[in-house]
Design a protein that fits this description.
alpha/beta, homodimer, four-stranded parallel beta sheet, seven-stranded parallel beta sheet, Ald_DH_C (chains A, B), Aldehyde Dehydrogenase, Chain A, domain 1, about 45% helix, 15 helices
Chain lengths: ~425, ~425
């Protein structure tokens, strides 16, 4: 491990120990100071960001990607406002999760405590730098940030401004750190920093997540890969099914809770598919369908790869199935365990689908797009976990904590 | 991956899908059938166990270890009784962890669901084979067991009897599987079976846990390594401190929640240490002490290795510290994050110690020996987690589950 990396990781570890016992008020004051500093230093951030944008342009990056990268005064104000909103959220640390008095009189409590040092590896947008830092600080954690090299100048400026702002508060400025270099090598150092980093959260596409999961010796929370399904059951209300499908697919196709695959029960295909295919076409969606879908309209022939795909675009894989069980098997085989929806009027079918689909979220007669910390009322989210350990689904502040058992006696001894 | 391993792992995976949606009653019936079968086939188990004992004897294993390995009718009855107790515990699956109606009318619930397939790698005693299987089945999980090769014949018999018993119930018999070979290689296959196995729980000493943590691509829950501390504060009630120290060290020295290190505040050393050293000696404890401890009695000189040691024997590392903060730093440096105790009459010192010690459990004026699922009222435990993700401290049935979000609407679409 490089000396540069160790220095930063150790500084974060020390800051974490200092930050963990802090009560809510100084953390909120620090977050507000960060928000104010970002606005005050807006011009400086925009100037740094211009370097990233120029570099991206030289490299021939698409205008859509450059727009994701770009920061202006209004976007910085929005980033600062998000930090203020995190300050307004309840502090998860210290919450008594369980507690009581044991038969022997020992008082037992399970308290929420910070995880310690959280590593975040992310792509693209520089707003994540600030969002992630704010959520980690609020939950009492230090954070090691490893962003995209394409946002290097912006991230460097943002982190320096945050650190300077923290220096005047009770939160140690070492609690927010950019991993040196922001290179592939620095990401690997983060993955191997077991003992210095308590948890690693990769935010990005499937290839980033997979490489972290494969290589990391630090415990990982997998986030965000969404191959979401809409299953239209034999008993579906067809109007409702079309609306849900269009919303799930087309309302915002680039996000992880957008639908990528449509499964239609054969019994409702005649009634549902002609209307669904018309509406999908009207919304600019390309359907990759099997032969039974092709019977109802123009489609691109589907491949097995399409069923695995997280398109994040106006594409949709589609197949007809002969039973709810066949739909469930398809979802268990090809899905990513993010969100899968059933549209049905049958209470029994809904119960069965909910029980058999093994995903972070299951939607009944609702769009998959609701799997989101904001929609669930969490106030903010660090990502959507698609794994089973620790946290599953949208992760808010409590998901950035661990717990500690505390028991208090008056000389209690164990006798057996 | 060997064909033998894949066959068993896939069978467990299929059984897990079938077992997950089962309600409590058939699971409890299956557990009672398992308990009855173990008793009925007692002679068969004892005969298989005799092969293990004979092999151990040929290999010159110590009588103490052989006693841990040995099964007789009374021990098998106790194992069966533990299975019946698991059947009597509440089913964690289906519990609504959080839930409510969102402002838009969407009904949102977070439900406990099984993890899926749990791998257990363990040493020594064959009773773990049955205990672990019972806890996994009750929480709706299939289990892949990889026990010690020293218990190969016993484990083979126990698993075959459990599978035969399950075959007559609604729980699929494939839900309990012994990993083929029970070798080092089979343990590695379990560690690499990402996608087939959802979580791996190593139960055993530090070297087992470390090798699993290092090599596994399957998510791991670290358990059981306990380098527990008793810190006697300046303000301690000295009688109470001696009693707690002796209980923590000597009541059962071979377990992970026994104390391994004593830290004494300098201000109480004169009053506490002479009595503590006398009492430790009377209980047969060898003290590995620093110079300041040696001032009060006969000790073996302590090394840094002693401060890291999990003795699991009648040995105790000991040092005098000049402040609570120095004690905390010692614990953070050398401890294993299991359980650390403070003995003090000062409310302020207790609060500070609880806040600063970053361990799964912190005891105030109580023996470290209470960190235990049974003592905490969990009814049973699969182990004591010393990691921060997912579960920390004693793990009961709820800790063997994940969660699933379910939301139900009437055609709810997202508009922003």
């Amino acid at each position: 491990m490089s000396e540069d990396f160790l220095k930063v990781a150790r500084a974060a570890r020390e800051a974490a120990a200092e930050l963990a016992p802090l009560p809510r008020a100084p953390k909120d004051r620090a977050l507000r100071a960060v928000a104010d500093a970002l606005v005050v230093h807006s011009a400086e951030i925009v100037a740094a960001n211009a370097e990233d944008v120029e570099r991206a342009r030289e490299q021939g990056i698409s205008e859509a990607m450059i727009d994701r990268l770009r920061l202006d005064a209004a976007r910085i104000e929005a980033i600062a406002e998000a930090v203020r909103q995190v300050a307004d959220l309840p502090d998860p640390v210290g919450e008594v999760v369980r507690g009581g008095t044991l038969p022997n009189g020992l008082e037992l409590r399970q308290l929420r405590v910070p995880l310690g040092v959280i590593g975040i590896i992310y792509e693209g947008r520089p707003n994540v730098t600030v969002d992630a830092a704010a959520l980690c600080l609020k939950s009492g954690n230090a954070v090691l940030l490893r962003g995209s090299s394409s946002a290097f100048s912006s991230n460097t400026a943002l982190v320096r401004i945050m650190q300077d702002a923290l220096a005047a508060t009770e939160v140690p400025s070492g609690a927010v750190q950019l991993v040196p270099g922001q290179t592939r090598e620095s990401a690997k150092e983060l993955m191997r920093a077991r003992g210095l980093v308590d948890v690693l959260i990769p935010r990005g596409g499937a290839s980033l997540i997979n490489s972290v999961v494969e290589e990391s010796t630090v415990p990982v929370i997998e986030t965000g890969v969404g191959n979401c399904h809409v299953y239209v059951d034999a008993d579906a209300d067809v109007d409702l099914a079309v609306d849900i499908l269009i919303n799930a697919k087309a309302q915002r196709p680039s996000v992880c809770n957008a639908a990528e695959t449509l499964l239609v029960h054969a019994a409702v295909a005649d009634e549902f598919l002609p209307r669904a295919l018309d509406s999908l076409a009207a919304h600019g969606v390309t359907v990759h369908g099997d032969d039974r879908i092709a019977h109802y309209g123009e489609v691109v022939p589907v491949t097995e790869g399409d069923f695995y795909a997280e398109y994040l675009s106006l594409d949709l894989a589609a197949a007809v199935v002969d039973s709810l069980e066949e739909a469930v098997t398809h979802i268990r085989t090809y899905g990513s365990g993010h969100t899968d929806a059933i549209v049905t009027r049958s209470q029994q079918a809904a119960r069965r689908f909910v029980s058999l689909v093994d995903s972070a979220a299951v939607a009944v007669n609702a769009s998959t797009r609701f799997t989101d910390g904001g929609q669930f009322g969490f106030g903010a989210e660090i990502g959507i976990s698609t794994q089973k350990l620790h946290a599953r689904g949208p992760m808010g502040l409590p998901e950035l904590t661990s717990t500690k058992w505390v028991y208090t006696g008056e000389g209690h001894l164990r006798t057996s």
